[in-house]
């Protein structure tokens, strides 16, 4: 390994707090070594937020250059507009918060209740049948329940998790883009970096306190796809996320602040 003078990092809202980054860039740990090696860092992200108040972009980067807001990009025709529906979901009152977000184990128990899973599919059939739909589940058991419910009702569906092999993922993603699979249910796979512009419906079957995750999930459905006649993206929010974070169009980038 060599010590570069310039380091460019994509998706820096995730990478800059990874073990790899902290090992490579001592200044992230505020150690004396940071005085001897401090390359110019340029980070890119569409979601510059962290859950932990101790993890602040202001102690890594000195200058922030904000791109155009989602609202402006929609106005210019670079993104499709969104249509939001808040739908009945699990009662998550009392679910513990761990590391800034809902505790996954407790959250999954609530969201995987049969009535909640049934409501997810009911609302899909009512609001967006036949749309290419990306579903975000809380955990694997929740995703499996959703997959079973969609499949039982005759909707061509697929499921991807962290354990799905790369080869199998590519096959599923291709079938999804071609429309052979109408509903793709995932657990932490199809957020940052997932690029299938044909998606025109997002189902947020998982609540989250993370603004970054929220923006990334909705962003998967806002890309242009004129060859498919795509004119908007429906957002079915079953987790109270719109109420918690506001619409993506209302979200503004926050200025850098020092800890």
UniProtKB/TrEMBL annotation:
Gene Ontology terms for molecular function: helicase activity
InterPro entries given in the database record: Helicase_C-like, Helicase_Restrict-Modif_Enz, P-loop_NTPase
GO CC field: cytosol
Coiled-coil region list: none
Tagged with keyword Nucleotide-binding: yes
Domain of life: Bacteria
Helicase C-terminal domain span: 120-259
Pfam families, per the entry: Helicase_C
UniProt keyword list: ATP-binding, Helicase, Hydrolase, Nucleotide-binding
Nucleotide-binding as UniProt keyword: yes
Name of this protein: Helicase conserved C-terminal domain protein
Organism: Lyngbya aestuarii BL J
């Amino acid at each position: 390994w060599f010590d570069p003078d310039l380091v460019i990092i994509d998706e820096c809202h995730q990478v800059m707090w990874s073990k790899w980054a902290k090992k490579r860039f001592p200044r992230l740990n505020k150690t004396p070594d940071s005085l001897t090696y401090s390359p110019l860092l340029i980070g890119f992200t569409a979601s510059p937020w962290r859950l932990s108040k101790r993890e602040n972009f202001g102690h890594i980067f000195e200058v922030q250059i904000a791109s155009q807001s989602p609202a402006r990009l929609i106005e210019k025709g670079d993104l499709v507009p969104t249509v939001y529906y808040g739908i009945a979901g699990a009662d998550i009152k009392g679910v513990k918060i761990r590391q800034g977000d809902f505790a996954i184990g407790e959250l999954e128990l609530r969201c995987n209740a049969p009535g909640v899973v049934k409501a997810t599919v009911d609302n899909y059939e009512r609001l967006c049948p036949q749309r290419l739909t990306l579903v975000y589940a809380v955990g694997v058991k929740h995703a499996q329940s959703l997959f079973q419910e969609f499949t039982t009702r005759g909707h061509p569906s697929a499921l991807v998790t962290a354990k799905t092999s790369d080869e199998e993922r590519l096959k599923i993603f291709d079938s999804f883009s071609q429309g052979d699979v109408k509903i793709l249910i995932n657990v932490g796979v199809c957020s940052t970096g997932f690029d299938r512009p044909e998606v025109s419906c997002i189902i947020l079957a998982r609540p989250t306190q993370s603004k970054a995750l929220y923006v990334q999930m909705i962003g998967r459905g806002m890309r242009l796809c004129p060859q498919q006649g795509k004119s908007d993206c429906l957002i079915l929010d079953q987790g109270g996320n719109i109420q918690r974070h506001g619409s993506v169009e209302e979200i503004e980038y926050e200025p850098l602040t020092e800890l």
